[in-house]
């Protein structure tokens, strides 16, 4: 662990430079630039809000205000978007950086660090816009919003642990990445993002607790919609699973690093 932290610190300029270069390259030939980073999730939110707002508004227990469902949906989509970006990029990070791994000697932990940094930068841009909306609409939750920070930290650990594990497997078995891409679409609808878990039949609500991501998403929704502190026990499964996946992913990479370079 100390060696990894030391490696990240020594190569911090490389990490920050890569994040900056990715951001600039992504919007280099675009007239609107980083605005697209806001418009894409905003379009999805507007569509779902227009279609489901009146139907779902009555399904949010203890909440009855004009923007309740819009805020609920934003909280879910923003947290899901961060998770999906990290895990999707992580599953192909070794394949996409094969030439870099072969030619340059640097701490390999820098690659997931770049992915996390880039995803958090995109998330921060959209979150700032969302917070402005909360302030203007009068639904800013106050100091309780700070509890989002540890919740997002757990989400990042879970996402990078899962992505790193799948990323190693994807080098040797490309079907793993293909399958996970399909599974991710189902995972979105199995997580209470567009709907509230309370509208599900009682026998199905029990299974929601087995979805580690559900606890994270519902924690964000609790903070932003109700202005209450999240259920910390609800994010415990994601914390434990995320840490285990990080350990598993690192060990797989350390044991298969030489084989991965040959395979790539």
Automatic annotation (TrEMBL):
Keywords: Cell membrane, Membrane, Polysaccharide transport, Sugar transport, Transmembrane, Transmembrane helix, Transport. Belongs to the ABC-2 integral membrane protein family. It is found in: Cell inner membrane; Cell membrane. This is Transport permease protein. GO terms for molecular function: ABC-type transporter activity. The chain crosses the membrane at residues 31-55, 67-88, 109-136, 142-172, 179-200, 232-253. It is a multi-pass membrane protein. GO terms for cellular component: plasma membrane. PANTHER family: CAPSULE POLYSACCHARIDE EXPORT INNER-MEMBRANE PROTEIN CTRC, INNER MEMBRANE TRANSPORT PERMEASE. GO terms for biological process: lipopolysaccharide transport; polysaccharide transport. InterPro entries: ABC2_TM (IPR013525), ABC2_TM_bact-type (IPR047817). Residues 32-256 form the ABC transmembrane type-2 domain.
């Amino acid at each position: 662990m100390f060696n990894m932290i030391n490696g990240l610190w020594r190569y911090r300029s490389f990490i920050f430079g890569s994040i900056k270069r990715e951001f600039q390259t992504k919007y280099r030939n675009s007239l609107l630039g980083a605005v697209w980073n806001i418009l894409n999730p905003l379009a999805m939110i507007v569509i779902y809000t227009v279609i489901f707002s009146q139907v779902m508004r009555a399904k949010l227990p203890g909440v009855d205000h004009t923007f309740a469902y819009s805020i609920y949906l934003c909280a879910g989509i923003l947290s899901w978007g961060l998770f999906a970006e990290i895990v999707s990029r992580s599953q192909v990070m070794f394949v996409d950086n094969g030439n870099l791994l072969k030619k340059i000697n640097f701490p390999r932990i820098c690659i997931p660090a770049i992915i996390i940094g880039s995803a958090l930068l995109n998330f921060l841009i959209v979150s700032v816009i969302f917070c402005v909306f909360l302030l203007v609409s009068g639904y800013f939750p106050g100091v309780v919003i700070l509890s989002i920070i540890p919740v997002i930290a757990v989400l990042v650990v879970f996402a990078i642990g899962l992505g790193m594990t799948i990323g190693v497997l994807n080098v040797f078995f490309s079907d793993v990445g293909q399958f996970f891409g399909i599974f991710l679409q189902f995972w979105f609808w199995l997580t209470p993002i567009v709907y509230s878990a309370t509208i599900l039949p009682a026998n199905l609500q029990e299974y929601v607790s087995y979805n580690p991501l559900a606890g994270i998403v519902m924690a964000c929704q609790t903070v932003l919609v109700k202005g209450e502190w999240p259920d910390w026990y609800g994010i415990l499964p994601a914390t434990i699973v995320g840490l285990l996946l990080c350990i598993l992913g690192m060990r797989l990479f350390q044991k298969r690093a030489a084989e991965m370079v040959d395979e790539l």
